[in-house]
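Morning - 5-O-phosphono-beta-D-ribofuranosylamine inputs below, output right after.
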Amino acid sequence: MSGRALKKVRIGVLASGRGSNLQAIIDAIEAGRLDARIVLVLSNKKDAAVLERARKHGLADVFLDPKPFAGQPDAREAYDRAVLDVLRKQDVELVLLAGYMKIVTPVLVKAYENRMMNIHPSLLPSFPGLDAQKKALEHGGKLSGCTVHFVTEGVDEGPIILQAAVPIVEGDTAETLAARILVEEHKIYPKAVQLYAEGRLNVSGRVVHVSGAS
Ligand code: GRF
C-alpha cells in the first residue's frame, strides 16, 4: 500500500484567482477518481481565494510576491526561477496552471516540458488569451468549450490533451457562457491529470495520443 502511495503523482498548482479548478482537482482526489497528490498551491496574488481553499484542505500554500523581482531586467524569468525552486524543493512532477494570470517563461516551460498543463475556456486553437468566452460570443460562434493542453512557450498553443464542447445559446452573455463552460472544465481537468497519472499521454509533435483510449 505504502509503495503505491509513494508513486502518486506529485502536483504543484499555480493559480491567481478563485480556484474552482483547484477545487475540482481536490474533489477528484478525495473521491478516489484521481491518483495524485497536491503538494503545493502557489499564487502570485496574496489574497487569492485559491490560497484560502488550499489552506482549508490542509494543502501547503505559497504566496510568491512578484514585486521584489520587478526591478530586474529579466523580471519574469527571475520570478520563474524562484517558482521553479519552490516546485523542485517539493519534488513536484506535474504542474497545473489553474487560472494562473501570469505568462510562464521558458525557464518553467523547459523544466516542465510535457509535465505542465493549462485549462483554457475555449476550443483551442480558437480564442486563445484573455476573455475567451466574450471573444467566442462576439465572433458569433455556435459552439465553444474548454481545452486542457500542455504548456509551451506560445500562450494557449501547446498540444491538446482533452476538450469538451459547450453550445452557445441565444441570449448568452460572457458570464452565462463562462458558467456553463466551467462545469465542463471541472470534469476534463481531473480526467486529463488522471490520464497523465496512468501514463497514457504520449506527445508526438503537437499531437497528444491517449493510449488505451476507446
Ligand atoms: C477558468 O475559466 C480557466 O479556464 C481559466 O481561468 C479560469 C480559472 O478559474 N484559465 P478558477 O480560478 O479555476 O475558478
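Note: Residues 15, 17-21, 98-99, 119-121, 182, 185 surround 5-O-phosphono-beta-D-ribofuranosylamine (CB under 6 Å).

O.
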